[in-house]
Amino acid sequence: MPPNPKKSNVRPVLVPQNGRPRPLSDEQAAAWLNSLSQQMPAAALQQGRQVLEQNPASLRFRGAYYQLLCDQEMKTELIDLTKAYLKKQPRDSLALTYLTHGLRLCGRIPEAISYLEKLYKLNPGDPVTLNSLGSAYKAMGDFELAEEFLSRAIAIKPDYGVAYWNKSDISHTPGEDLAHIQ
Questions:
Q1: Distance CA 76, CA 70 (A)
Q2: For the segment 38-82, what is each residue's pLDDT rounded down to a tens digit?
Q3: Residue 87 — left, alpha, or beta (φ > 0 → left; ψ -120 to 50 → alpha)?
Q4: How many CA atoms lie within 13 A of 122 on its CB side?
């Protein structure tokens, strides 16, 4: 799944409370959104979108809102929102990660691969990105390239069970790969 966003150093996020804006840290605003989404998902989507429009640089809040869209299975909205953000910030890893996730959920694997390759160029040593690329290539039937990326993910993070699991489908030694998961 997408990476855990680092704490951002931006101005306070203003969230609505009793009809008035309340300043919170980025982390507190993300917690507010998560709490609201558990009680009133529709309100969280609406209010979260408004807060996000006013505070697009709030990394944790933006990650929480993207995750809320995933949780609500709002794939098209997630894709549109992340693409819009990437027009302004084309190297944003968080938006690229969630965009590729949304595209894959919609079955748009070739498009997801193009964005995963951009994400890979930003951070070639990230095992999650390498695993995602390998998994996407596997879904496209390019097993040689898939095994290459999955093996690189495992080389970087030898205890990465998800990469072993993905590789076991195409490996010449699936038993060995699956043994690493336990």
A1: 10
A2: 999 999 999 999 999 888 888 999 999 999 999 999 999 999 999
A3: alpha
A4: 17
- The reported pTM is 0.83
What one-character-per-residue DSSP string does 86-140 give?
A: HHH-TT-HHHHHHHHHHHHHTT-HHHHHHHHHHHHHH-TT-HHHHHHHHHHHHHH
Encoded amino acid at 106, one letter: C
In sign, the C-alpha dihedral spanning 33, 92, 97, 53 is positive
Q: What is d(CA 66, CA 129) in angstroms, rounded to the nearest whole number?
A: 18
Q: What is the dihedral of CA 1, 103, 130, 148, to 10 degrees?
A: 140
